[in-house]
Amino acid sequence: MANGNEPSGSNQDGGDTDLEIPPTLGVMGLQGHIDAIESGRVYGWAWNPEQPDDRVRVDIYVRDRLIESVLADRFRQDLVDVRVGDGTHAFVFDLPADARDADSASISVYFSATQMPLSRGQKGKLPAPGGEADPVATLSGRIDRIEASVQQVFRALHIIRRTDDDPTRVIETEELKVLQKRVSVAADQGETLAKRVYSLETTANAVQSYIDRFELEIYDRVMRRELDNVREEITSVRFRQRVIGYILLLTIVGVSYIIYESLGAGLAGR
Hints:
The chain is α+β, with helices and mostly antiparallel strands.
């Protein structure tokens, strides 16, 4: 996002600005989702599993413009059902009048003071109560959060380089070292997660291929059985036709013989 209200490392003209590293910079445990944008309202939830009793604040943007910061402190039973803390991590925001007709694609939500967006659509959506989340979607969401944290570290590096004369540079340098360690761990986790996603996709493809072959084999067996049944039925019909034909032939011969004997006896009597 390129608006001046968005947390970033420089203004639109490239000039210097006084910036601070957001307090939540580099936090990868944050989780949240935009559930719906309808009737002029934005619905969603956000929380930090590492601090489940705290309430997370989110920033609402419309057309790259910061509209409001909202605290996710509303209770929802479905959050409790899927173990999202105590369930008091939802938010509902009423869009201003001039933004109610905005396209939902132009509305975004970020964790406050970070560049980490909340997920939307099917990715990151809550699983059904008692069910399990799609492992590929879950791993993909974690990879997205890791990538967002890496971007924030580069932003922090940019800030520190612009404040060489600042007496707080030593503190910021230490913070950068901590963030760099987190990035290193995140990169390893991202590679591991990517491998797991690839493995899951490969397994899913193999299972689907097996299912396809199994269905084809079942279909082939069913068709062969039906053909065998048809052949047996045809053989049975032909046998019955032959038996009936023999019976009719014997009947005709017998009747003809009786008629012949009757005619012979009549002629002899004369």
